[in-house]
Amino acid sequence: MTQVRDHTAPRRRGRVPAALLVPAGLGLLFLVLPLAGLVIRAPWTTLPQRLTEPGALTALRLSVQTATLATVLCLLLGVPLAWMLARVEFPGRRLVRALVTVPLVLPPVVGGVALLLVFGRRGLLGGWLDATFGITLPFTTAGVVLAESFVAMPFLVIAVEGALRAADHRYEEAAATLGASRWTTFTHVTLPLVAPGLAAGAVLCWARALGEFGATITFAGNYPGRTQTMPLAVYLALETDLESAIVLSLVLLVVSVGILVALRDRWMTSA
Amino acid sequence: MSGRATRTVVAVLVAALTVTGCGAGDDRASGGAGDGRVTGAVTVFAAASLTESFTRIGKDFEAANPGSTVTLNFAGSSALANQINQGAPADVFASAAPANMTTVTEAGNADGAPNVFARNQLVIAVPRGNPRQVTGLADLSRPGVKVALCANQVPCGAAARTALDSAGVALTPVTLEQDVKGALAKVKLGEVDAALVYRTDARAAHADVTGVEFPESARAVNDYPILALKDAPNPTGARAFVAYVRSTPAQAVLAEAGFQTP
Amino acid sequence: MSGALLDARLVVERGAFRLDVPLRVAPGEVVALLGPNGAGKTTALRALAGLHPLTNGHVTLDGIDLDRPATRGWVPTERRSIGVVFQDYLLFPHLSALDNVAFGPRRHGVDRRASRATAREWLGRVGLSAQAHRRPRQLSGGQAQRVALARALAVAPALLLLDEPLAALDARTRLDTRAELHRHLSAHPGATVLVTHDPLDALALADRLVIVEGGRVVQEGDGPSVTARPRTDYVARLVGLNLYRGRAEGHGVRVAPELTLTVADRLDGEAFVAFRPAAVALHPTRPEGSPRNTWAGTVAGVQRHGDNVRVQLDGPIGVAADVTPAAAAQLRLAQGQRVWVAVKAAETHAYPATG
C-alpha cells in the first residue's frame, strides 16, 4: 500500500502504537478534565468584578512574590547541595540523598509542624533567633517563604543533581587543566553546562512553591496581605462561596501557566 | 495538598467504597422498613468538632441496633455540605453551623426540617497553666499577646467576631486559621498565647490547653443542626440515627464533651 | 639524559593492574607513548596532568615536584603548567572558539582583553580566525581539533599532553591535521607527551617512541630504530614485520625446537630475528637450491593486503607471507593446505634481545 505522495512527504518512523497512544490520551484527559471542570463552572458574568476584589489581587501578588523568593532561596542552597551529592564522595551520601527527598513524602501539614518545632517560638532555633536577633518567623511573610522553600527544594535538588550526573564531568577536568579552580570551574563550566536542568528545576520549584498550602498555613498561618497566599485564599473561599474559589483558582492557574510557558520558551528551547 | 483536602479525598473514597459494598453485598436492603428495625450501614457526615462524641454515639447506636453499622465521615461543615450537594451518598448530615445546613436544605437535599441537637460556646484557649494570666477578652488586646482566630468565613471565626464586637475589644490576630483545630494547634505548639475556640475543642485538648470561659460567649452560641438526607441510601437508618442523637444517652455523651444541650 | 624538563616515574596501581613507566622529556622534545588499548597510556597521561594521583614514583616538571607520594608532594591540576588536548577535545559547548581559547589565559590571571587578544593570535596560528565566534558544535572535526590545540597552547605550558589527538578524525582530515599538528609540536618549546595507539601518528609526530604494553615500557627509541628492531610482537605487527626470539649461535638462531633460522648477521646469545612478509616465498613442493631456511607450513588464512595477498601460516613458527595474486592463484591457496615456506638469509635481520 505505498502512497505515491510519500516521495515528497517527510519520512515517518512508522505508526504510533495503540498500546502507547490510548493510555497517553487517557492520561492527558485525566489531567485536563478537572481543569475543564473549573473553566466550565466559572461564573463568567461576574468574573471581572470578582477579579478586581482587592483581596484576590493581594493574595496573588503575595503568592508570586513568595514563590519567587522561595525559588531564589532554593537555588542558593539547593544547587550547592545538588553539586555535593553529584560530585563529592562522602560517607553517608546515600542517606543524605534520601533525606533530601523527605519533604516530598512528608504531608506538607506535618512539614509545617516540623518547621514550627525548629523555627517556632519554642523551637530549637526559633527561641535563639528571637532572643539574639529579634527575628520571629511564624506568621510572617518570611515564614511563608521558608515553608514554601522547605516543600519545593527537593524538586530543585533532584532536577539539578540529575543534570549534574548526566553532564560529562570531564569538562570539569578540562577546565582544571586550563588553570580553573574548583569554584571557577563550578561557576564558569559546570553551571552553564547544566543550565537547562537548572532552569527546569527552578521552574518546578517555583510552581510547587506557588501551589503550596499545608506547610504555609501550619507554619506561617493565614493573614491577608502578610501570609495569605492564593491557595490559602482559595481554600477559605471554598468555605463560603464555591464560585469565588473557582475564580481564584483560575487566576492562579492562568498566571502560573503563563509564566511557565514564557520561561520555557526563553530558557529551555536550547535544551 | 492540605490535610483537610486529603481527608476529603479519603472521605469520598470511603463513601464510594460503602456504596460499592452495598451494591455487591446488599447488606443494607433498607432492612425491615416495616417493623422499624434498623439494619445495614448508616453513613453519617458530621462536623469535625463532633469527632470524639459522634464516634462514641455511633458505637452506642450500633450496640442498640444489632445488625447496623455506622460509617462516620468527619470534615469541615462547609466541605461536607458541598460533598452532599455534589451527590455524596450520605444518610445523615450533622453540621456545626446552621448556614451550612441551609446550603443543603436550599439545594433540596433534606428529608424534613433540621433539628438543633447541641450548642457550642467559645472559650479562650490558652497554654496549660495560663502563663499569660488571661482572664477575659480584654486581655487578648494587651500588647505582645499573640492571638489566633478562625477566619471569618468559618463558623468559629464568625462567632469570635460577634463575641469580640459585643465586648468592644479590638485586636489584630497574627493568623486567621481555616478551622478551629488549626487555631488550637497553634496554642498547643506555643506559637500563640491564646485562641478563640469552642469549649468542646478546648476540653478535648485538656492535656495541653486550658479553656478560659468569658461572659460574651453567650452572645455567640453556635447551633448544631442535624437531619436525614432525602437521597439517603438507608432512609430508615437515617431517621433512626437522627432520633438517637436526640435521645438521653446521646445527649449525655455530648454534654460530657462540653456541648450544651437544647 | 640531563636537562630533562619532565622527569617522571609513573607508578599507578589499580586493582590487579600496575602501571610503571619511567619518562624523561627534554625541552622541545616530543615523546609518544605508543601501545595497544588497555596498556595504561591514558592513565599515564592523566597522572602527568594530576587527574589521577600516583601510587608511587614521581612527576617532576622543571625541577618542581608535582606529585611525589613518598614526600606527600602534590600540586593540583589547576596549578600545573600543563596544556591538555583531550581525545574528544572537550571544548566547552557554551563558549565560542575564541572564549574557549581565552579560558586558559583568563584563569592564569590575564585580564579579559589581553586573554582575548592571545586567543585571537592562537586561532590565527591554527588558521581559524574566521571561525572565532563559532560554537564548538558549529565546527568540523578538524577545526575542533585545532581549537583544542590552540586552547592547550595558549597558556604556554611547560608540558603539553595530547591524548589520541587524531583518533576522532576521518582518514582524509587526519592526513592534513597530522602535518599541521607536527608543525605546531615542533614549534612548542616545552616538553610534549603524546599518547596514541596509531604507529603512523607516533612516527610522524614524535622524536622518540616509548612503547607501553601491560603497564610497562617494552621498547624505547627513535622511530627508525624501533621500526627496524622491534622487540615485541605488538611493535612487529605495528610495523609489519615477522618477529621471533631465540638463541643465536653464529649465523644460526634457534627460534623453535626443530627450527633454526640462518641469518646474515652474526651473533651469540638471546636474539631477535625479523623479516618482512614480502621476503617470504611459498612453494607447492620442497624448493631445491639456495634458500637455507625452508620448512613445511599449513595455510591458516588468506586475505587481500594492498595489491598483494597476505597468507597466514602455521608450522614450527607462525609466519605472515605476502605473495602476488598471480602466485596465490597458481598455488591455489586454501585454508588447511600444506605448502613449503622459504626465507632467504639475506632478507633477515637479527639483533640481540638484551640491551
Automatic annotation (TrEMBL), chain A:
One of its GO terms (molecular function) is molybdate ion transmembrane transporter activity. The chain crosses the membrane at residues 20-44, 64-86, 98-119, 139-164, 185-209, 245-263. Residues 60-263 form the ABC transmembrane type-1 domain. GO terms for cellular component: plasma membrane. It is a multi-pass membrane protein. Its main location: membrane. The complex is composed of two ATP-binding proteins (CysA), two transmembrane proteins (CysT and CysW) and a solute-binding protein (CysP). Part of the ABC transporter complex CysAWTP (TC 3.A.1.6.1) involved in sulfate/thiosulfate import. Probably responsible for the translocation of the substrate across the membrane. This is Molybdenum transport system permease. It comes from Micromonospora arborensis. The gene is modB.
UniProtKB/TrEMBL annotation, chain B:
GO terms for biological process: molybdate ion transport. InterPro entries: ModA (IPR005950), ModA/WtpA (IPR050682). Molybdate binds at residues 49, 77, 180, 198. SUPFAM superfamilies: Periplasmic binding protein-like II (SSF53850). PROSITE patterns: PROKAR_LIPOPROTEIN. Residues 1-24 form the signal peptide. This is Molybdate ABC transporter substrate-binding protein. The gene is modA.
UniProtKB/TrEMBL annotation, chain C:
Pfam families: ABC_tran (PF00005), TOBE (PF03459). This is ABC transporter ATP-binding protein. One of its GO terms (molecular function) is ATP hydrolysis activity. SUPFAM superfamilies: MOP-like, P-loop containing nucleoside triphosphate hydrolases. Keywords: ATP-binding, Molybdenum, Nucleotide-binding, Transport. Residues 3-239 form the ABC transporter domain. The keyword Ligase does not apply. Residues 288-352 form the Mop domain. One of its GO terms (biological process) is molybdate ion transport. InterPro entries: AAA+_ATPase, ABC_SmlMolc_Importer, ABC_transporter-like_ATP-bd, ABC_transporter-like_CS, Mo/tungstate-bd_C_term_dom, Mop_domain, P-loop_NTPase, Transp-assoc_OB_typ1.
